[in-house]
Write a structure and sequence with these properties.
- The complex is a heterodimer of chains A (about 220) and B (about 500).
- Chain A is an alpha+beta fold and about 220 residues long.
- Helices cover about 40% and strands about 20% of the residues of chain A.
- Chain A has helices at about 1-20, 25-35, 45-50, 50-60, 80-95, 105-110, 110-115, 150-155, 210-215, and strands spanning about 60-65, 70, 120-125, 135, 160-165, 175-185, 190-195, 205-210.
- The radius of gyration of chain A is 18 Å and the shape is globular.
- By secondary structure, chain B is mainly beta.
- Chain B has 2 domains: about 1-30 and about 465-495; about 30-460, Methylamine Dehydrogenase, Chain H.
- In chain B, strands 14, 15, 16, 17 and 18 form a 5-stranded antiparallel sheet that branches. In chain B, strands 1-31-30-29 form a 4-stranded antiparallel sheet, with no helix packed on it.
- Chain B is globular and about 100 Å long.
- Classes of the chains: A alpha+beta (about 220), B mainly beta (about 500).
- The interface of A and B includes residues 172, 174, 177, 194 and 200 of A.
């Protein structure tokens, strides 16, 4: 009976670990490597990472980090609906006192000023699918200039998984086709888009909000 | 034994002669079976080094020089942040033998990404036009300089899936008028709308054309008659029919006033090309068999319209699931300017078929490009077919252009394989088409834009062909008689 319980617990733990792409410590190490690669990021990306707890409190499952802003992954039917969400985000940022995990303390400390300097915007027509989105805009540099997949692979090694996502909108507009190069069990994916003017460039970075937030911030675990 | 031998010899000769006669007879009596399109992969490792998907292609042929052919597909985008980085037009100046990308479509406005949907056309003078979605609006680009110079962007109009045509008939009364149908998502339910321009797209006038009083519209396509009448086909979406199908009507509306109004052929919605009852057509993101490979989107991939440039007859292609249980391609013909219609099935009722494009040549030959799929094997095989009719759409001869399993093709994204539509046009006695198919001769097997060209003339035997066959028949007959006589003499001597 006792053996059964241990076995069940082990299986459950292993299942959880595999579902999240590995044990938490392993994921934190992988993320530390990814976010510690200076050649991949712009100078202001720690502030963007510091905003993740606010996205998490909004219930966003994933966000897109572009060169100069973060865009929420959830589509909104109307501009007004998105506006309400943007206001909730602003309130969430004000209430934030995120405490970074020790591994990320050096990276994330003293980002509060930048965090409050950033502003929320509503994008009435997100070009992927024509929906309204909320965007956290810093006017800063979040990704390394001219970042391409060759650089990512050179710094991080081959991706754990490469997948394609066809972003279908409501109408007949051409869908954007994204190629996701996933690392850290899918917590971070460097994304190439078929709409990018330079083939092979990194168009954006996908962040799995709950997974990355849990790894980077203590109280969000 | 000897008798038997001779019998075999004479029988063989008789069989041979019969076989020759049957072969010649079949060729001469059903000459369309001889047809085979010229097919060319437009992309090479040199002009497509990034292995782009090149989906949703459309095609136009310069009426002043049919050797000049232009295609737009989803190849390189323009740069929304740099006007110097332009999207390409694929061009051939040798009738489709060689192709180059000419980067001449700049961003329409700073920050506007694209191209999204697009369609290409020439006017009567051989000037190039392209309708594009850039950012959240549509734009018509026009040629104002040399043929390869950057195109000039026109006024913003429209929302979704712009198509394009220019009146090329000097006697029409609306010569050079430009028409661009599109789908208006700014109203509920969405409505088929047609913009027209007397300034080559510099200014556009939007006119609501579809009946959206009860149902949303979709699949809006246009054709222009030599007498200046304009025809548009669209569908009304009338609810799910289960699975991948929904109930629709395909309506045709006519404009006799240059696109100012669209009520010339009567009816509150236009005229249904298949009669009063609704038909079932595809509305799905999974055209194909998801369990057996990649699939395609087919939501506005079910209607097309074209005009016979000689007679002015109107042809409409549409998809309808019939008694076969398969979505099938039908072509309806109207000889009275869109008031009444007669339909015939193009496909053979054995596979799901969709994505019809339609063109009519100067001799009245009708061509339909379409796609079907076969999922009876381990993976789904998609087939691009070209059907021709030489009797006004009553009987059809179908040739397979290409079969393709997109599964192994890295740049084939499940959910959007070739786009919502492809390209077909006719100039003179030739059909010109383009589809997104499997590459040939590339280092990496992939989706590429595939050009094809096919005669619009039935392969009837000319006089010299008859003479040649006649001579051969006589020679063969004489040879047979000679052999028979020789064998007879040999047999008699031995006896």
């Amino acid at each position: 009976m006792k053996f059964d319980g241990i076995l069940f617990g082990t299986v459950a733990l292993l299942s959880m670990a595999s579902a999240f792409g590995g044990p938490p410590e392993e994921k934190a190490n992988a993320l530390a490597k990814i976010f510690g690669e200076p050649g991949l990021w712009g100078k202001d990306y720690p502030a963007a990472l510091a905003s993740l707890p606010a996205w998490n409190r909004l219930g966003e499952k994933r966000v897109w980090m572009f060169a100069d802003r973060i865009i929420g992954g959830s589509p909104h039917k109307t501009r007004e609906e998105a506006q309400g969400e943007a206001e909730r985000f602003t309130e969430a940022v004000k209430a934030l006192r995120p405490r970074p995990a020790p591994k990320f303390e050096a990276l994330l400390k003293e980002r509060t000023e930048q965090l409050s300097a950033a502003k929320m915007e509503v994008i009435p027509f997100f070009q992927d699918d024509g929906t309204a989105r909320i965007a956290w805009t810093t006017g800063a540099q979040l990704l390394a200039p001219q970042l391409n997949m060759a650089t990512v692979k050179e710094r991080l090694g081959p991706p754990e998984k490469v997948s394609t996502e066809v972003v279908q909108g409501q109408g007949e507009r051409r869908p954007v086709i994204l190629t996701l190069h996933s690392y850290a069990g899918g917590a971070v994916a460097f994304v190439a888009s078929d709409m990018a003017p330079r083939p092979g460039s990194v168009d954006r970075v996908l962040l799995d909000v709950p997974a990355v937030t849990a790894a980077l911030f203590e109280e969000e675990r | 034994m000897k008798t038997c031998h001779l019998l075999i010899n004479t029988m063989s000769m008789r069989s041979f002669l019969v076989a020759v006669a049957v072969a010649l007879g079949s060729i001469l009596s059903d000459p369309t079976e001889m047809a085979a399109a010229t097919i060319k992969d437009m992309a090479t490792d040199a002009n497509d080094p990034s292995n782009l998907g090149d989906t949703e292609p459309s095609i136009a042929v310069n009426p002043t020089n049919p050797q000049e052919i232009a295609v737009v597909a989803f190849s390189e985008p323009w740069d929304p942040n740099d006007p110097a980085v332009m999207a390409p037009v694929w061009k051939s100046r040798d009738g489709g033998v060689t192709w180059n990308k000419i980067r001449q479509i700049p961003r329409p406005a700073p920050g506007a990404g694209g191209p999204f949907d697009q369609k290409i056309a020439f006017d009567a003078a051989g000037n190039l036009y392209v309708a594009e979605i850039g950012g959240s609006a549509c734009f018509v680009y026009r040629q104002t300089g040399g043929p390869d110079a950057p195109l000039t962007v026109g006024a913003a109009y429209g929302v979704d899936q712009p198509h394009l045509d220019v009146d090329k008939s000097a006697s029409s009364g609306f010569f050079n008028r430009l028409y661009s149908p599109w789908l208006n998502f700014g109203v509920a339910p969405e409505q088929s709308t047609i913009s027209n321009s007397t300034s080559s797209g510099a200014m556009m006038s939007d006119v609501a054309a579809g009946d959206n009083s009860s149902f949303a519209n979709r699949t809006t396509r246009i054709a222009l008659a030599p007498d200046g009448k304009a025809y548009v086909i669209y569908k009304t979406r009338e609810g799910s029919a289960g699975g991948n199908f929904e109930n629709v009507h395909f309506y045709v509306r006519r404009s006799d006033d240059g696109g100012v109004t669209w009520t010339a052929n009567g009816g509150t919605s236009g005229v249904s090309v298949h009669g009063a009852s609704a038909v079932q057509t595809f509305f799905t993101n999974t055209f194909g068999n998801l369990a057996k490979g990649k699939v395609a989107r087919a939501r506005s991939s079910d209607a097309w319209i074209a005009i016979d440039p000689g007679s002015g007859d109107v042809y409409a292609a549409y998809v309808s699931k019939d008694g076969s249980g398969f979505g099938q391609i039908f072509v309806a013909r109207s000889t009275d300017q869109g008031v009444t219609w007669t339909s015939a099935r193009v496909t053979d009722g054995t596979h799901h078929s969709a994505y019809p494009e339609l063109a009519v040549a100067v001799n009245g030959a009708v061509g339909v490009l379409y796609i079907d799929y076969d999922d009876s094997g381990a993976s789904t095989i998609f087939g691009h077919h070209f059907a021709r009719s030489f009797d006004h759409g009553v009987n059809w001869t179908v040739e397979l252009l290409q079969s393709m399993d997109p599964g192994p093709l890295a740049n084939a994204a499940s959910g959007f394989l070739w786009g919502d539509y492809e390209g077909l046009t006719a100039v003179g006695h030739t059909f010109y088409g383009v589809f997104t198919g499997q590459s040939t001769g590339r280092a990496t097997s992939q989706l590429d834009p595939i050009f094809f060209k096919e005669s619009a003339q039935a392969k009837h035997c000319p006089w010299w062909c008859w003479w040649w066959c006649w001579c051969w028949c006589w020679w063969l007959l004489l040879l047979a008689i000679l052999i028979f006589l020789v064998l007879l003499v040999v047999w008699l001597r031995k006896k």
